[in-house]
Amino acid sequence: MQNVNNPSRTRRETVQELLQKDGRCNKPQNWHLHVKDKKKGITPKCKACRAEQQPDDLIVSVTGLNVPYGQTFVTETTFYFCPKAVCVNNIPVWTNLKPPKEIKVDTTIDGLILTNLKQEGLPITGR
To answer: Where are the alpha helices (DSSP H) in the chain?
Structure first.
């Protein structure tokens, strides 16, 4: 897809330039494993597999930058993922996210669950 403002540049090139120019791009990304809160509003979906995340589900979240499709501005957004290595490592293209080196864990999560998630390949660190 060609950029409307400059037909010789691809959307990917334009997005990467927008993200690099944004001062928030270098903020550290803190990945967290926690239980989804019971809140009203839109049910978040995993950014990788698009599965709806229901209240009391385990989720991985991180705040990062996103360029909405067809736009030329950057928004700060919280991204949600399933607690699976395949989902967490499948990063959306139009963001500044990097695969996590470590995922911090909420203190309420059972140790057996953490052991299973570590065995599945999630880079989980201490509470």
So the answer is: 11-21, 85-88, 111-119
What is the distance between the alpha carbons of residues 57 and 38, in angstroms, rounded to a whole number?
10
Cα–Cα distance measured from residue 83 to residue 27, given in angstroms and rounded to the nearest whole number: 23
Q: Which CATH number fits domain 11-119: 3.30.1740, 2.60.120, 2.20.70, 3.90.1570?
A: 3.30.1740
Residues 6+ apart with CB under 8 A from 51: 45, 82
φ/ψ (deg, to 5) at 24: -80, -5
Taking only the tens place, the pLDDT of each residue in 45-59 is 999 999 999 888 999
Whole-number pLDDT of residue 5: 57
What residue spans define the domains of the chain? 11-119
Residue 49 token pair: 């597999």
Spatial CA neighbour of 78 closest among 125, 22, 32 = 32
